[in-house]
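To whoever is covering the structure queue this week,

Two jobs came back overnight. Logging them here so there's a record in the thread.

Job A:
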Amino acid sequence: MQIDSALTYADVLRPTRTLPAWLYDVALVVAGSVLIAASAKVSFVLPRNLVPITGQTFAVLLIGALYGSRRGVATVLAYLAEGAAGIPVFAGKGAGVAYMMGPTGGYLIGFVVAAAIVGWLAQRGWDRRFGTTVVAMTLATTAIFFCGMLWPGYRMLPGGLWTAGILPFLPGAIIKIVLAAALLPSGWKLLAKLQAADRGSGVK
């Protein structure tokens, strides 16, 4: 059974009979922002590098694919708003506008762009196959790097453009992309099988 390629995981799994659509979206945004915050705590900083390596990118990419563009962007914006309000949701105990204006600021803005890219492509079925998922995740990751390098605070990083802002993150980025590309299409295949089984058993 083929699930409509315009639907995201969030669309397919929405409990339409038990939860209003707006409340479901709010719950997704809140849960997603908590997930990004939790992933930010999985971090470490390489010597002589001010930008930490965290699990945030993977969480943002997954949320974009699972939620779609609109919900994904709303989730990342909610996460950034929490940090701007002083809640320590960033790497380490980072919080506040001053932290966001530092060398990590461009990467944080890049999360919004990445969620929009992945979500938009997911709504067009790009997360249904390994190859297209890799392309979608690579485009989004590139956007994060690009926004990071354009940020004025990026000049605070010791070292050159390549060695300080890109090279340390490449191995982790590749692992995250491949992992997401393995998980997302597999999940769609499982959902299709479950829906076919439900229809076959007469469950509605």
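Job B:
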Amino acid sequence: MPRKLPPELRDIIAIQSGVIERRQALRLGLDRDQIWNLLRSGRWLALHHGVYATFSGPAPRSAQLWAVVLRAGPGAALSHFTAAEVLGLTTEQSRSVHVTVEETRHPGPIQGAVVHRSRRIETARHPAQLPPRTRVEDTVLDLTQCAPSLDQAFDWLCRAVSRRLTTPERLADSLRARPRARWRADLQVAVTDLAGGIRSLLERRYVTSVERAHGLPPARRQVHTEIGGRSRYVDNLYDEAQLVVELDGQVAHPPEQRWADARRDVEHACAGLLTVRYSWADVTERPCLVAAQVAELLRSRGVPVALRPCGAGCTTARKLPR
């Protein structure tokens, strides 16, 4: 970077990962001829119309993001999948840079970017984080609105809460500000479930397809246990029956994890806790069978259960007591 650049301009360039917008450069001390000479000499490179890299060579990711935000204009903010990337909601890098501008603004096409327009961007944009991006709660709700299914929408909610980037209460507040959101009623129930301790899509499938659908009593979620000086959490605990229902996700556990689970189950058994485990396939493909088995285990341990069919084709009816 040339030493003759004004100090304030150098500071802005450093903050913006080496990227500057033409109007910023003019406001902070350069004239049109100086900008032209920097571009002609190759010391600056045009990334977008009116947006320049003050270095040569490939632009790093941070510079690419700043370049899109500056090209989009005042008030713009990274959003959707790109905001999820910079906020830590995902480790994947979005193919296109997503940016949101005020609904009345039309910045035109931006190479390598997807431009969204919103009347809420002023309140959705984080007040301090750089490069400008939407708040966690607004980012999550934006992603739920472009999710192909309610399950995937719920997965975004889970990620935000399980990674401690926000809370169910904050998500509920943001959802109340979106009366026309797609799946709004379902998302409200999902946020309530998150507040109750559900932390994964599989856990919610268990609650909705096994527990609630068949009239099982509600378990406590993510319950802390301490046995033999070891602190652990169990997915579902039916206190009265001292029954633990653990849920294993779609990805197969490595051998060392399976052995750790087995040791934990034995330690729980020594303390009076019976543990049963169900897979993704069990919960999603055989929920009626799982419900019947859990109901029988609850009854065998002294908890009365009035198991009910989830629908006309429910197979638990074959297992109801005569």
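Note for Job B: The mean pLDDT is 91.

Please reply-all if you pick these up so we don't duplicate work.
Q.
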